[in-house]
Specification:
- By secondary structure, the chain is α+β, with helices and mostly antiparallel strands.
- The chain has helices spanning 5-12, 29-35, 61-68, 75-85, 166-176, 191-196, 208-216, 298-313, 346-355, 377-387, 390-393, 438-442, 458-466; strands at residues 17-23, 40-45, 52-55, 91-93, 102-105, 127-128, 132-136, 143-147, 149-154, 157-161, 181-187, 220-224, 231-233, 238-244, 250-252, 267-269, 271-279, 284-286, 320-325, 334-340, 364-368, 394-402, 411-413, 420-429.
- The protein has two domains: 85-286, Electron Transport, Fmn-binding Protein, Chain A (Pnp Oxidase, Chain A, Roll); 314-442, 3-Layer(aba) Sandwich (UbiD C-terminal domain-like).
- The chain is 25% helix and 27% strand.
- Strands 5, 6, 7, 8, 9, 10, 11, 14 and 17 form a nine-stranded antiparallel beta sheet that branches.
- Helix 4 packs across helix 8 (298-313) and helix 8 (298-313) crosses helix 9 (346-355).
- It starts with a helix and ends with a helix.
């Protein structure tokens, strides 16, 4: 059976927090989802009888591993391998699917009747932030997916902000021809597909959904839209169909982004006109709260980590990369690399590889050795404090293109509706001397407390560790 959101929620078992209190999804879901330590399901939504809302499904390695069918310690390496050896996966068009159980066309397609929340104080309104946006290249017929923000402006209209990447290129092709661009939002997919929808590297001849099918080891089921020429996942909870009229721009924003700020990209934006809504009869609204330390960050950072892991491992022919980590609490702008440098300059080249990747997010890259736990910020800062000589081990690169939502860098151009920011990037080499400098490297061997390897103490030491 094809994987779907409900399979994942069921597999969570008692790990899923179920809230039976009546909750207003528009004004209260934001705070609850932002505060939830693990997956959450709101069972009773004020003003939306029969609806449920879920969020915080892949916030940490444990749930990411569940979504990808691997172990927490293997998420990056396993995903990296699958992304570049198992794709594209298979896909097939089916005549019907769960997302077609209810069909609302034309004037009946009212998006205000979906439990779309306000994410943050000061937002311009209710924002759809969980729809996998689907477009198609009018020349090649190849689809592309991303997850973008879309402001509910009325029953059948949304304004949206989109970075200048693949989806945007599709829309511009339609605009240049004076044609409305078909676009759809698929809400409520298996989280494995949501993770791969955020892949930003090259995928010529196939889309991120087919990449997801390869990674998950299944055949993707697609159905034709009712009103536009697009294919969408049959297992989705909700599908919103529509078109983007050429040249139409209206104010959009502010919106509290993954950075923790509402500034960055507000301004004139394209408009999405709704033509249909199809959904499951008892649809679950998949929310992605956009405040800090939620699903919003790892859904982007996990495929970024996997892409970087492969890219960095190929530097100098082969570099011993153990892990790559982009913690939610660094807002995707800082990357930790765990590696074993063999030669002088190798760690520096790895760090420069992070800062010149297909992703715009990284502006700070930090390299540490295999004896430093990159999931523990205390360990990382210990390595920076004791292994870094700022005079030699820090590289600052000026005048680089920076992520458009990073407001620490100035916006130098606002052509069309995107944003171009230019600022500095920094590489921090907190590794020990490389392997070939054996004597100098041994000087940085970490000390162990007396008795740490005593077999008689192992059970008690494990107990103490579990109490932390």
């Amino acid at each position: 059976m094809a994987l779907n959101l409900r399979d994942f929620l069921a597999a969570l078992g008692d790990d899923l927090i179920r809230v039976d209190d009546e909750i207003d999804p528009i004004t209260q879901a934001g705070a609850l989802c932002s505060a939830s330590p693990r997956p959450i399901l709101l069972n009773r939504l004020t003003g939306f009888p029969g609806w449920k809302l879920c969020d915080i499904l892949v916030k940490d390695r444990k749930r990411q591993a569940k979504a990808l069918g691997t172990a927490p310690q293997s998420v990056v390496r396993e995903l990296s391998d699958r992304m570049f050896t198992r794709v594209p996966g298979g896909s097939k068009i089916v005549s019907d699917g769960p997302c077609k159980e209810v069909k609302l066309l034309g004037a009946d397609a009212d998006i205000t009747k979906l439990p779309i929340p306000i994410h943050s104080e000061g937002d311009a309104g209710r924002y759809l932030g969980s729809g996998v946006t689907i477009t198609k290249d009018p020349d090649t017929g190849v689809r592309n997916e991303a997850i973008i923000r879309a402001l509910v402006r009325g029953p059948r209209k949304m304004g949206f902000w989109m970075a200048a990447r693949h989806n945007w290129a599709h829309l511009m092709k339609y605009q240049e021809r004076g044609l409305p661009a078909p676009m759809a939002f698929a809400i409520g997919l298996h989280p494995g597909y949501e993770i791969l929808a955020n892949f930003s590297g090259r995928h010529e001849g196939y889309d991120e959904l087919e990449m997801g099918a390869g990674v998950l080891g299944e055949t993707l089921e697609l159905v034709k839209c009712e009103t536009i020429d697009l294919e969408v996942p049959a297992q989705a909870e909700i599908v919103i169909e529509g078109v983007v009229p050429p040249g139409v721009r209206e104010p959009e924003g502010p919106f509290g982004e993954f950075t923790g700020y509402s500034k960055g990209a507000e301004g004139p934006a394209p408009v999405f006109e709704v033509t249909a809504i199809t959904r499951r009869r008892d649809a679950i609204y998949r929310h992605m709260q956009a405040t800090v330390f939620t699903d919003h960050q790892p859904l982007v950072s996990v495929p970024m980590e996997a892409s970087l892991y492969r890219r960095l491992s190929e530097i100098h022919g082969r570099t011993e990369i153990h892990d790559v980590y982009i913690p939610p609490w660094v807002t995707m702008f800082t990357v930790f690399v765990q590696m074993t440098p063999r030669w002088d300059g190798q760690a520096r080249d790895v760090l420069l590889g992070v800062l010149s990747s297909p992703y715009l997010h990284p502006k700070i890259a930090i390299a540490v050795d295999e004896d430093v736990n990159i999931y523990d910020p205390r360990e990382v800062f210990w390595a920076i404090s004791t292994r870094l000589n700022p005079e030699h081990d820090v590289i600052v690169i000026p005048h680089e293109r920076i992520h458009p939502l990073d407001i620490s860098a100035p916006n130098v151009d606002r052509s069309e509706v995107t944003v171009m920011r230019v600022g500095g990037k920094m590489a921090i080499d907190a590794t020990k001397p490389p392997l070939w400098r054996k004597k100098e490297r041994e000087e940085f061997t970490r000390i162990k407390p007396k008795g740490a390897d005593d077999p008689a103490l192992q059970a008690l030491l494990a107990r103490l560790a579990s109490m932390g």
